[in-house]
Amino acid sequence: MNAVCPTSPPREGEADFGFHELFFSRTDPRGVILSGNEVFRRVSGFGWSDLLGAPHKVVRHPDTPRGVFRILWTALGRGDPVGGYVKNRARNGDHYWVFAVLLPVPGGFLSVRMKPSTPLFARVRDIYAEIAQRERAEGLDPAEGARALRDFAAAAGYSSYTSFMAAAMGQELAARDARLGRPADARTAQLIALNTSLEEVSREQRNLLRSFEALQSVPNNMRIIASRLEPSGGPVSAISENYRSSSQVISERLRSFVSGPDNLCDRVSRQASKALFLIGAHRVLSEMRQNFADATPVPGIDWARERQTLRAIETQAQQDTGTAMEQAIAHAEVLGRASAEIRRQMLGLDTIRVLGRVETGRMRGTNTQLSATIDQLDVSHSDIRLRLETIMRLSEGIGTTMRMFQRTQRMA
Question: Which part of the chain is the PAS fold-3 domain (predicted)?
Answer without folding.
Answer: 36-104
